[in-house]
Amino acid sequence: MPKFIAVTPATTIKTGRVKPFSVGGHNLLIANVEGRYYAMEDRCSHEDSPLSLGCLKGELIDCTLHGSRFNVKTGIPVEEPAVEPVKTFRVRIKDDMIEIELGNL
Ligand code: FES
To answer: Which terminus has fewer CB within 10 Å in the chain: N or C?
Structure first.
C-alpha cells in the first residue's frame, strides 16, 4: 500500500508558485499549477542546481543555471542542455494537507 507523507498545508503554495521542501532527507519541490499540486526532485538533471530557484510558468519551471526547462507534471525536460528527466512523485490532498508518496527513493 502506498505510503503518503504530509508535507505542508495546501494554502502555503499559491497558484503559480513553487516551494522547496526536505522530506525524509530528500530535497523536493512542490508546484501549484492552476490549483493542482505536483512534486518533483529539486535538482536539475544537468548539473544538480535546485530547480525551485527558477520561475514557474504554466507547467514549466526553468533552471536558473543554464536555462533548461522541465515540465513539473512529468519531470521531462523540454529544453536543453538537460536531457534526462527529473523524478516526480504522486501527490494527494488530505485534510487540506499536501501529501506526497516518496515511493522507492
Ligand atoms: S544545471 Fe540546470 S541546466 Fe545546467
So the answer is: N
